[in-house]
Amino acid sequence: MSNDPISPESLIQKLEWRYATKKFDPTRKIPAAHWEALEKALVLSASSFGLQPWRFVVVQDPALRARLLPHSWNQGQVVDASHFVVLAARRGMDSGDIQALIQRTAEVRGVDLEKLEGYRKMIAGFHQMADTQGWLDAWSARQVYIALGNLLTSAALLGIDTCPLEGIDPARYDTLLGLSGYTTLCAVAVGYRAADDAAASFPKVRFPHARVVEVR
Ligand SMILES: Cc1cc2nc3c(=O)[nH]c(=O)nc-3n(C[C@H](O)[C@H](O)[C@H](O)COP(=O)(O)O)c2cc1C
Question: 65 lies in a domain?
């Protein structure tokens, strides 16, 4: 598969262009092909062991979005953005999740299941450790945030605006979305900035490079 790189300048320009959009233009909708690409970007996100302990719920029903609004600090992005996706993490991952990955790997790569037994055992060992030490769900959550970052960057590359939202009530979201086995962590409003979103022109606030990046 070929991969024509974009220039470093272009990458930085796109990352400077993106910002947490406070006000979306409710009249502008993302074209289907672009949205499809963003869903694929979510699916293509990297995860530890490739376990993909996540669920992405695309909420396009306006009535459901209106019900989520009061549980989202009344942030208008929830109802105004073209698309709204809730990122949920697997809760209590079990051996079935590991088996599903092994099965899928065998299928996609045309490998015999026996050949993947060592890999399955290695993941099972990791799973047992995470479970007994009490950080299994925290691990799942970390994977979901990789997908979040991937979505923000992918959208920016397509010239599409986003706002990540942790200002939501995850328990209410879980109930309203009928999630089971997964729990809401955050959401992302995706669409196009309103012409009068003042936040678009705010200078980016980042610590100086040297405070954040160390070279040894
Ligand atoms: C995990 C996460 C949750 C966030 N939650 C909200 C939110 O609920 N509402 C909001 O307006 N911005 C939210 N933000 C946006 C941040 O405030 C913003 O990314 C940060 O101030 C940096 O600004 P920039 O993204 O515009 O460069 C969130 C960002 C992240 C990464």
Answer: yes
